[in-house]
Amino acid sequence: MRPPHRVVVLALDGVYPFELGIPSRVFGALQDRYEVLTCSVDGGPVATNADFSVTVGHGPEALATADTVLLPPFDISRLSRELPPQVGEALAAVRPGTRIVSICTGAFVLAAAGLLDGRPATTHWAVADVFRSWYPEVALDPDVLFVDDGDVLTSAGAASGVDVCLHLVRRDHGAAVANHVARACVVPPWRDGGQAQYIEHPVPPVAAHDTSATRQWALENLHEPLTLTELAGHARMSLRTFARRFNEEVGTSPGRWLIQQRVYRARHLLETTDLPVDDIAGQVGFATGTSLREHLHAAIGVSPLAYRRTFRGTAATR
Fold it and tell me: In this protein, which residues make up the domain named HTH araC/xylS-type (predicted)?
């Protein structure tokens, strides 16, 4: 059997305890597939941004054994434009080709180390201006939850750390396994990385008429065409009001959300059934198999056959 994929979390002084625990919670739900180690730059205790410190099990030598290195965020009062020497020495041990992930302010460390030069990235919107002024060579997008640039992934604050970790599970093992982990963690199974960070979206009053019931109805009827007029009619709103409220609540347009859900459902069927592509397209609301192929390729860059082969093996694609 292949050894578990090793995720090494580098905790820096001022680390946020919530985000520090995300990798162990998400990847730790699959102990047969992942192994999570936590280290510091010197092997000693790490001060958090709360009123306690944490003791980690490993020193920086653990980074040389990592398949994925993850940098959780730390308090903004500790941000610096230059890479602290100890942190630079620790990162120098990371093997070439290792997947590297940051959450929130962890992106500052990657940028200071030159790992984001010329690459797309994100961080928490509240520190985006500082990040952009310090690292203009990075293609910063502060309006998304996470950015997957292959071997380097960056994410925004707090809950988006859960999103990017679930995204990695989905990328490594498919939607069905990621759904299992999400259920174990009692979190939503999927939020698109391009979804907005909700920078200025107020929480609506409890009594406010929202679009959640219509979204649930749409998910139950994905096999139908589902026009914007039909969605707004189900929500008993005008087209303009529905589109505005939907974007406020979900962070994207109804049309884009529908495509995301159709692709997500199609991926699940490709992983768990032997249905032909045309049949799957009909079940998820795409007019033709060609339409499904185009949307799947736009979303994840592969064809249905290649996706099915990846997650079900060659026998299932014959």
Answer: 212-310
Nearest residue to 152 via CA among 116, 100, 114: 100
CB atoms within 10 A of CB 88: 14
Tell me the two tokens of residue 9.
């979390």
80 vs 63: CA distance, rounded Å:
22
For the cut 60, the answer to whether the pLDDT of residue 34 exceeds it is yes
Residue 131 has which token pair? 């990040």
Length of the chain in terms of residues written: 318
Q: Which two tokens stand for residue 82?
A: 């230059």
Q: For residue 117, is it left (φ>0), alpha (ψ between -120 and 50) or beta?
A: beta
At residue 248, does pLDDT exceed 50?
A: yes
Annotated domain spans of the chain: 5-185, 204-318
pLDDT of residue 166: 93
Write the DSSP symbol of residue 65: G
Sequence-ordered strand ranges (E) for 17-144? 34-39, 46-47, 53-54, 68-71, 99-103, 120-121, 139-140
* CB distance 101 to 120 below 8 Å: no
CB 155 within 8 A of CB 146: yes
Identity of the amino acid at 267:
R
Residue 148, token pair as written in the block: 């997957």
Mean pLDDT (the chain, rounded) = 90
Which residues are paired to 53 by β-bridges? Answer: 47
Residue 218, both tokens: 């749409």
Which residues sit opposite 6 in a β-bridge? Answer: 35
Q: Which CATH class is domain 5-185?
A: alpha beta
The answer to whether the CB of 71 falls within 8 A of the CB of 88 is no
Which CATH number applies to 204-318: 1.10.760.10, 1.10.10.60, 3.55.40.20, 3.30.1460.10? 1.10.10.60
